[in-house]
Design goal:
By secondary structure, the chain is an alpha+beta fold. The chain folds into 2 domains: 92 residues, Winged helix-like DNA-binding domain superfamily/Winged helix DNA-binding domain (Arc Repressor Mutant, subunit A, Orthogonal Bundle), CATH 1.10.10; 98 residues, Winged helix-like DNA-binding domain superfamily/Winged helix DNA-binding domain (Arc Repressor Mutant, subunit A), CATH 1.10.10.10. It contains 9 helices and 8 strands. The strands form 3 sheets. A 3-stranded antiparallel β-sheet has the order 1-3-2. Strands 5-7-6 form a 3-stranded antiparallel β-sheet. The radius of gyration is 22 Å and the shape is elongated. The protein starts with 15 loop residues before the first helix and ends in a 5-residue tail after the last strand.
């Protein structure tokens, strides 16, 4: 009998849903449906027909989305402290809102970094009016935005997404996937706008902290 751990019999997964959950748990970043399907197909390479891997590789995008939704519903129902997060069509497993203090204590993480009022104002303006230039931001706030823009860029909450056609072709700023992730947004379309808003930036819509496992 072989002593090689890799040669020992490993029970097969009970369902495709358990495989998807494992992939989402192990992934270092959110995964799209297409990426999950590609992973299933790679896992099936070289396997025989009628095996779990071969059958799992045949899943359709619609069925895969249904299974992902089921995972989210199950996690919510069981209240295990884990939640399914969707960000721009990509999925991940995260700790539930409200558990951040305990998670930080468990992993000895520093407290969440609080955004200054100027940074909060600038981030809100960019979130609601992107793409937007530094000059446009400064015209709204009435003060220089150079240092705040640098700080938000270092936090990976904003990035340059192009150049304006105006003279000098200034950089245009927009938010990042990290912004969506930290503030629990699926996409920019889920930002709440007050009735009659024409591109303003309601500051109450943007939290003033960058939470760890608290979003």
């Amino acid at each position: 009998m072989s002593s090689d751990p890799d040669a020992r019999a490993v029970p097969p997964p009970k369902s495709l849903q358990s495989v998807i959950g494992a992939m989402l748990f192990a992934a270092e970043r959110p995964l799209t449906v297409a990426e999950l399907r590609d992973a299933l197909k790679r896992a099936a390479e070289g396997t025989e027909k009628n095996t779990e891997a071969a059958m799992f590789a045949e899943v359709t995008p619609t069925r895969l989305r249904d299974l992902i939704d089921d995972i989210g519903d199950t996690l919510t129902r069981l209240d295990l402290g884990i939640a399914l997060r969707e960000e721009n069509g990509a999925y991940s497993l995260r700790t539930q809102p409200g558990t951040g203090a305990w998670v930080r204590a468990a992993v000895k993480a520093p407290p969440p970094q609080r955004l200054s009022r100027p940074a909060l104002e600038t981030l809100a303006i960019i979130a609601y009016r992107q793409p937007i230039s530094r000059a446009e931001i400064e015209s709204v706030r009435g003060v220089s935005a150079e240092h705040v823009l640098r700080a938000l860029t270092e936090l990976n909450l904003i990035r340059t997404i192009g150049r304006s056609e105006l003279p000098g072709r200034p950089f245009l700023y927009g938010t990042t996937a990290t912004f969506l992730e930290h503030f629990g947004l699926r996409s920019l379309d889920t930002l709440t706008r007050p009735e009659g808003d024409t591109g303003g930036a309601p500051l109450e819509a943007i939290p003033d902290t960058l939470p760890f496992a608290d979003d």
